[in-house]
Design brief:
The protein is mainly α. It is built from 14 helices and no strands. Helix 6 runs antiparallel to helix 7 and helix 13 crosses helix 14. The relative contact order is 0.11.
């Protein structure tokens, strides 16, 4: 299996909606974004799939070293070997890759966030930085596009958090800010024990509005001249905003179930967005 084949398999195995957006890219840019996504999946899986925190830290340290090896021209892992010939062309640098690893490592240290400011810093590392790297790969002319990409990345992460509240709670993680829980009268134990209530639905409605505001802010920041180049991000925004609406239509029942769109529906949304761009 070649490094590129490994990255494609990693992306396909994740079942991510992002793969629908990648299909509309030219082959070389698709190679680059698939390799970047595979990198993010690899480091994220370290925390999600390794129950031993000490071992997970050691694995993340290995990835930090692997980033350094990548930019010394000595990559060992299939993902970094796939990134190696593309990094310079598409503006992929060591610093943001290190920041992604550091963001993922926070899941080993912190399972609660006091307020949105703290959560936003986490979202910056694990998603905002990725959004900026993706914008480099997709191509842009106006530097304001990087602001759009960063905000859009945070919007994606907020959507993931709302979708995965129950799944994260089963790992003893609560990403919803504790100050928001208190404001809506929801105790952390209610989330950990999957006890749905009208108060929890109101909390989720508040968090959905915050995510929607990030989408609106991102789209408002995207210069018209870069809209076509940034089409993959717009496709993902359309898919993820539809997912948010589905979560709301389901009464925000995310504690004991996971809301998802069918592959056919995601394909339809992607195609419709592409045709309208």
């Amino acid at each position: 299996m070649t490094p590129d084949e490994y990255c494609r398999a990693k992306t396909a195995a994740a079942g991510s909606s992002f793969s629908y957006a990648f299909l509309f890219l030219p082959p070389e840019r698709r190679r680059a974004i698939t390799a970047l996504y595979a990198f993010c999946r690899e480091v994220d899986d370290v925390v999600d799939e390794c129950p031993d925190a000490a071992l997970a830290r050691a694995k993340l340290d290995w990835w930090r070293g692997e980033v350094e090896r990548l930019f010394r021209g000595q990559p060992q892992h299939p993902v970094t070997r796939a990134l190696a010939p593309l990094a310079a062309t598409y503006g992929i640098r060591a610093e943001p890759l290190h920041e992604i690893v550091s963001g993922v490592a926070l899941d080993l240290e912190r399972v609660r966030y006091v307020d949105f400011a703290a959560l936003e810093r986490y979202c910056h590392q694990v998603a905002g930085v990725v959004g900026v790297l993706a914008a480099h790969i997709f191509g842009y002319r106006d530097p304001r596009t990087l602001e759009y990409a960063h905000t859009l990345g945070i919007a994606f992460q907020l959507t993931n958090i709302l979708r995965d509240v129950g799944e994260d709670a089963r790992r003893d993680r609560i990403y919803l800010p504790l100050e928001d829980l208190a404001r809506h009268g929801v105790a952390p134990d209610e989330i950990l024990e999957a006890r749905h209530s009208d108060r929890f639905a109101a909390l989720m409605r508040f968090e959905k509005a915050r995510a929607e505001a990030h989408y609106e802010r991102a789209l408002a920041a995207l210069p018209r001249e870069d809209r076509r180049a940034q089409l993959p991000g717009l496709i993902m925004a359309a898919i993820y905003r539809t997912l948010l609406d589905e979560i709301e239509r389901g009464g925000f029942r995310v504690l004991d179930r996971r809301t998802a769109l069918t592959p056919l529906r995601k394909w339809w949304i992607a195609t419709r967005t592409w045709l309208r761009a």
